[in-house]
Specification:
five-stranded mixed β-sheet, about 40% helix, Helix Hairpins, 2 domains, Chitinase A, domain 3
């Protein structure tokens, strides 16, 4: 089985989701199934079918989370050092065309969220940044076309 790299924050979020699904969602769904059964004929009971489907989806996600957590390789970003971009680095970039600043942290695939500045290690921008240092220029092919950035800061926090 392959290890799944992730930050401590990403691992904690997965553990919290698993705990919520096991201790809150599972009992809620079981109660919904019991209430739907009480309504009688299960073959025409939409509430029962809906609750059973919700149970199936929840149990599937629990199994998936347990698998991910068991294969997680937690990387403590605060213990990383250096001036080269690698997993966990928070990178400040300047768009060479617009002078707009952007900041991204390179994280595991499962914890990426561009809205919060976390990009997946397998994303085009992260792949272009890996191994670069402050002052380097980076060409990134994006869905909107090519972009050129300059690395202005590399930090591990």
């Amino acid at each position: 089985m392959d290890r799944i790299p992730m930050t401590g924050r990403g691992f904690k979020a997965l553990e919290e989701e698993l705990k919520h699904r096991q201790s809150v969602e599972r009992p809620r769904i079981i109660l919904a199934i019991q209430e739907a059964r009480a309504h009688g004929d299960l073959s025409e009971n939409a509430e029962y079918s809906s609750a059973k489907e919700a149970q199936s989806l929840n149990e599937g996600r629990i199994t998936e989370l347990e698998s991910i957590i068991s294969r997680a390789e937690i990387i403590d970003v605060t213990k990383l050092t250096g001036n080269t971009v690698k997993f966990g680095a928070t990178v400040k970039l300047v768009d060479e065309d617009t002078e707009e600043e952007k900041q991204y942290q390179i994280v595991g695939d499962l914890e990426a969220d561009v809205k919060f500045g976390r990009v997946s290690i397998s994303s085009p921008i992260a792949r272009a940044l890996i191994g670069k240092k402050v002052g380097d220029s980076v060409e990134v092919n994006t869905p909107g076309g090519g972009k050129s950035y300059e690395v202005v800061e590399v930090a591990f926090r």
